[in-house]
Design brief:
The complex is a heterodimer.
Chain A: E1 2-4, E2 7-9, H1 17-26, E3 28-32, E4 37-42, H2 46-53, E5 66-72, E6 78-86, E7 91-95, H3 100-110, E8 116-119, E9 124-130, H4 134-141, E10 154-159, E11 162-167, E12 176-182, H5 186-199, E13 204-206, H6 209-218, H7 252-261, E14 265-272, E15 282-284, E16 290-300, E17 305-313, E18 322-327, E19 330-337
Parallel strand pairs in A: 3-13
Antiparallel strand pairs in A: 1-2, 3-9, 4-7, 4-8, 5-6, 6-7, 9-12, 10-11, 11-12, 14-17, 14-19, 15-16, 15-18, 16-17, 18-19
Helix pairs in contact in A: 1-6
Chain B: E1 8-9, E2 14-19, E3 22-27, H1 29-35, E4 38-43, E5 49-50, E6 55-61, E7 65-69, E8 74-79, H2 82-85, H3 89-92, E9 101-105, H4 117-126
Classes of the chains: A alpha+beta, B alpha+beta.
């Protein structure tokens, strides 16, 4: 167990990090993600408010759609990444645990008088069910099949008598979804899903933080505080695709200025040999000059490579560029590679 | 956690087990359990002469990296090449398939300076 954003969470269960990763890629992994935050935003001008606050286009979202977006500050740097759900009467915003209070304060500071922002975090529990058999398991126990929801759509259903808002999204690169439901049902639903998986002969296991990290890393997804942060702008982190420059949003002007002169550094993937690259390890040219820093790195169990995400000088960001990662004082060979290392299910 | 009764142990959790002229070295079951899933092992080459306490390699798990220390002085006679493709052997079979190096010791009696199996079991039982 380890502290994570004021919560006590398991790094891994007795199953072990590598096996938990494998189970999620081949069957079903359960993730307790209650630490995440949820806000509900409503009011006459809620749509234009949310549209100004987040980087992605949302004016085209209809019920039952949702979309990934960034929350940027005026410098175009990333306060958080989040999901925006278009509910019938409101906007449902799902944020990272570590940023919940700051995000809420940020939204409130920018809201006009007619905007209502309700923090639903404490009363809402979240469990992610991820893996190639996740939908099969959930369909077997849900009153209305979740398979009816397309990727990035949400639907309402009931599992074990518990009312569920189901979002077909996730943080692993596998199919599956995230379940939002009343917090008092958490233990019941957790054990119910494990039991039903076992009864159905579908390998279903609890997954800890270490495997969560290797799963999202392989699939090219960012972790706040690493690939994205308030000192990292959306363009250098490779998130131009999550920004709608045809609308007004906080940070747009700053990003346009950065785009005009080109970002000084860029986030790249590095494939390394001779050791495990890790966060904070330096990246250097073969001749020795330090040109960047790793923000995350590990052994990737599915693609069986040692890899890192690193910010390097933009001129060196082309795939195929030969660099070094300094591992415990020793320069080890590294090559810039395209991300993601593992193609997410919804892109195959 | 199991302890190989035929081996002796360093305080830093390497074991040393005599087999003929050579001494087989690896890390104990307790050590692999503490490290977690092993993902990388790097070992110095055969022929290398090292003193007791010097680093003969590096082991990396999902969560941490650690140096490996010679339990006694000698030269590396053999290296377990299988650990490059399957570092998890150290987790699965720390005393057999997960062996790391075989040393030609400077003096076999140096083994006596190490903890015997019973003393090591107490050491890790107490931790």
């Amino acid at each position: 167990m380890a502290p994570f954003a004021d919560y006590d969470m398991p790094i891994s269960y007795p199953t072990g990090a590598l096996e938990e990763h494998g189970i999620t890629r081949r069957s079903v992994g359960l993730f307790d993600i209650d630490h995440m935050g949820q806000f509900e935003i409503s009011g006459p001008s809620a749509e234009s408010f949310v549209s100004r606050m987040v980087s992605a286009r949302i004016s085209d979202l209809r019920v039952p759609m949702s979309r990934y977006s960034l929350l940027l500050n005026e410098e175009g740097c990333v306060l958080d990444d989040l999901f925006v759900y278009r509910l019938p009467e409101s906007w449902w915003i799902v944020v990272n645990a570590s940023n919940r209070e700051a995000d809420l304060a940020w939204f409130k500071s920018k809201a006009t008088a007619d905007i209502k922002i309700d923090d639903r975090s404490d009363e809402t529990y979240m469990i992610a069910v991820q893996g190639p058999r996740a939908i099969e398991l959930l369909d077997a126990v849900a009153t209305k099949p979740v398979s009816a929801a397309e990727r990035f759509d949400w639907c309402r259903t009931e599992i074990g008598g518990v009312p569920i808002l189901f979002g077909r999204t996730g943080y692993t690169g596998e199919d599956g979804g995230e379940l939002f439901f009343p917090a008092e049902k958490a233990l019941f639903l957790w054990e119910y899903l494990l039991k039903k998986g076992s009864e159905a002969g579908i390998e279903t296991k609890a997954i800890g933080l270490a495997a969560r990290d290797s799963l999202r890393f392989e699939a090219g997804m960012p972790l706040h505080g690493h690939e994205i942060s308030p000192s990292i702008n959306a363009l250098e982190a490779g998130f131009k695709w999550a920004c709608d420059f045809k609308k007004e949003f906080i940070g747009k002007a700053a990003l346009e200025a950065i785009a005009a002169r080109g970002p000084a550094r860029k986030l790249v993937g590095l494939e390394v040999s001779g050791g495990v690259p890790r966060e904070a390890y330096q990246v250097a040219e073969p001749q020795g000059r330090v040109v960047g820093r790793c923000v995350a790195g590990m052994f990737c169990p599915s693609v069986k490579k040692y890899a890192a995400n690193a910010f390097v000088e933009s001129a060196l960001a082309t795939p195929g560029t030969a660099l070094k990662v300094i591992i415990r004082g020793q320069p080890k060979d590294a090559t810039v590679v395209k991300r993601p290392l593992y193609i997410p299910a919804y892109r195959r | 956690m199991s302890v190989d009764a035929k081996a002796r142990y360093a305080q830093s959790h390497e074991y040393a087990r005599q087999e003929g002229d050579l001494v087989v070295v690896g890390i104990s079951d307790h050590a692999q359990d503490e490290l977690g899933d092993i993902v990388f092992v790097e070992l110095k080459e055969a022929g290398k002469k090292l003193e007791k306490g010097q680093v003969f390699g590096t082991i990396e798990s999902v969560k941490a990296a650690s140096d490996l220390y010679m339990p006694l002085s000698g030269s590396i006679a053999e290296v377990n090449a299988g650990l490059q493709a399957d570092p998890a052997l150290v987790n699965r079979e720390p005393y057999s398939g997960g062996w790391m190096i075989k040393i030609k010791p400077d003096a076999v009696k140096d083994l006596e300076a190490l903890l015997d199996a019973k003393a090591y079991a107490s050491l890790v039982g107490e931790e």
